[in-house]
Every structure is written in structure tokens, then in C-alpha cells.
């Protein structure tokens, strides 16, 4: 009998919703106003969406044409949540690789960015994750990512640096070691601060 009981999901108040109510109340917000009545539920739902993992399967193909030049997708948009303030940051990633024996479906480069951005993040980790994922899944000659983002924890609070863009990069293989390949990658991913996003 206890197995049956354990299998039934508990029905009751949503702990996340209750926590939002407690947080807002502790901060002095009067949730009695009609327009705020449903706010805890909406906030809990919004954070659930932002924290939901993004799963996908990598589709790779044999490099039948022997492509050994840079394959680059620019301006892939992403949204994430800063792990220090729980505030959103967002921007674009430019992602490229020099194929080895396998090539990747181009849309999967966008999937890698979106999957890497999920969860509580810092921009540096997203950038590293993208480059490392490509390196591990494809075993390419080289891989790299440049990420440009605006952090609302920097623009709407604290230093209030509205319009500041943060750029991070991670390069692996020939894009790190070969000066010409590296220069080409950096030149082709350079947009001068979020230009690719606007
Ligand atoms: Zn932050």
C-alpha cells in the first residue's frame, strides 16, 4: 500500500510559488493588490522555464568533401540567468569549427549555444562549454566560440552600466595554436560589441 501512496504526487501549494510570496512579502511588497494576486505563480513559472534544461541530440555527418576551412555561424541568440543575481543576461554567440572527420548539422550549432546557456550561468562558462562540447563531440581540427552579452545585473542595478557589452572567447585546437587560423577566427567573429545582435 505504501508503494501506491508514494507513487501519487503530492497535491498542495507549489513550494516555489510560496517561496516567491515569502520573498516579496519580506521585501515589503503588498501582494493584496489585485494586479499582484497571480504574480507568485507567474514568477515561479518564469524561473522554471529559464532553468529548464535544453536537451538535444547531435547529428553529425562524415566530412565527405574534405572541408578543412572554418565553418562559422554568427549571431546565434541566447538567453540565460546570472548565477550571482538571478537576473537575465542575453546576447549572441558566434560559433565555429574546422572539421576533422565529421561535420555537424548547422542548426545544431544554435542548439549547442542554447543548451550551454541554460541554468544558472556565468558568461565565461557558457563560452567554454560551447568550445568543449564541439571538441568532444566532433573531434575537429579546431573549435571556438565568441559570446557577446548584456547583463541586466550590470545595467538595471549596481553600476547601472546600460549598454555595456561583455565579450568572452574560447578557442581550441588549430584555432588556438595556429596564429593565422586564430586571427581569421577572431576577425570574422569581431562585431564591436553586440552589433550582431542589434
Ligand atoms: Zn550577475
UniProtKB/TrEMBL annotation:
<keyword id="KW-0614">Plasmid</keyword>
<feature type="binding site">
    <location>
        <position position="85"/>
    </location>
    <ligand>
        <name>Zn(2+)</name>
    </ligand>
</feature>
<keyword id="KW-0378">Hydrolase</keyword>
<dbReference type="GO" id="GO:0003934">
    <property type="term" value="F:GTP cyclohydrolase I activity"/>
</dbReference>
<comment type="similarity">
    <text>Belongs to the GTP cyclohydrolase I family.</text>
</comment>
<comment type="pathway">
    <text>Cofactor biosynthesis; 7,8-dihydroneopterin triphosphate biosynthesis; 7,8-dihydroneopterin triphosphate from GTP: step 1/1.</text>
</comment>
<protein>
    <recommendedName>
        <fullName>GTP cyclohydrolase 1</fullName>
        <ecNumber>3.5.4.16</ecNumber>
    </recommendedName>
</protein>
<feature type="binding site">
    <location>
        <position position="82"/>
    </location>
    <ligand>
        <name>Zn(2+)</name>
    </ligand>
</feature>
<dbReference type="InterPro" id="IPR020602">
    <property type="entry name" value="GTP_CycHdrlase_I_dom"/>
</dbReference>
<keyword id="KW-0554">One-carbon metabolism</keyword>
<keyword id="KW-0547">Nucleotide-binding</keyword>
<keyword id="KW-0862">Zinc</keyword>
<dbReference type="InterPro" id="IPR001474">
    <property type="entry name" value="GTP_CycHdrlase_I"/>
</dbReference>
<dbReference type="Pfam" id="PF01227">
    <property type="entry name" value="GTP_cyclohydroI"/>
</dbReference>
<feature type="binding site">
    <location>
        <position position="153"/>
    </location>
    <ligand>
        <name>Zn(2+)</name>
    </ligand>
</feature>
<keyword id="KW-0342">GTP-binding</keyword>
<dbReference type="InterPro" id="IPR043134">
    <property type="entry name" value="GTP-CH-I_N"/>
</dbReference>
<comment type="subunit">
    <text>Homopolymer.</text>
</comment>
<keyword id="KW-0479">Metal-binding</keyword>
<dbReference type="InterPro" id="IPR043133">
    <property type="entry name" value="GTP-CH-I_C/QueF"/>
</dbReference>
<feature type="domain" description="GTP cyclohydrolase I">
    <location>
        <begin position="17"/>
        <end position="188"/>
    </location>
</feature>
Amino acid at each position: 500500500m505504501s508503494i501506491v501512496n508514494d507513487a501519487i504526487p503530492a497535491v498542495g501549494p507549489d513550494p516555489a510559488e510560496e517561496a516567491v510570496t515569502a520573498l516579496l512579502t519580506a521585501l515589503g511588497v503588498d501582494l493584496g493588490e489585485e494586479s499582484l494576486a497571480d504574480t507568485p505563480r507567474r514568477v515561479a513559472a518564469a524561473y522554471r522555464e529559464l532553468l529548464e534544461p535544453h536537451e538535444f541530440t547531435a547529428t553529425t555527418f562524415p566530412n565527405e568533401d574534405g572541408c578543412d576551412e572554418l565553418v562559422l555561424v554568427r549571431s546565434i541568440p541566447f538567453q540565460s540567468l546570472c548565477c550571482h543575481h538571478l537576473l537575465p543576461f542575453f546576447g549572441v554567440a558566434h560559433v565555429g569549427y574546422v572539421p576533422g572527420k565529421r561535420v555537424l548539422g548547422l542548426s545544431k550549432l544554435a542548439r549547442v549555444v542554447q543548451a550551454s546557456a541554460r541554468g544558472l550561468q556565468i558568461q565565461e562558462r557558457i563560452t567554454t562549454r560551447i568550445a568543449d562540447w564541439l571538441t568532444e563531440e566532433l573531434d575537429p581540427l579546431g573549435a571556438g566560440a565568441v559570446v557577446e552579452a548584456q547583463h541586466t545585473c550590470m545595467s538595471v542595478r549596481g553600476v547601472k552600466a546600460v549598454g555595456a557589452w561583455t565579450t568572452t572567447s574560447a578557442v581550441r585546437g588549430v584555432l588556438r595554436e595556429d596564429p593565422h587560423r586564430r586571427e581569421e577566427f577572431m576577425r570574422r567573429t569581431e562585431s564591436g560589441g553586440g552589433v550582431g545582435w542589434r
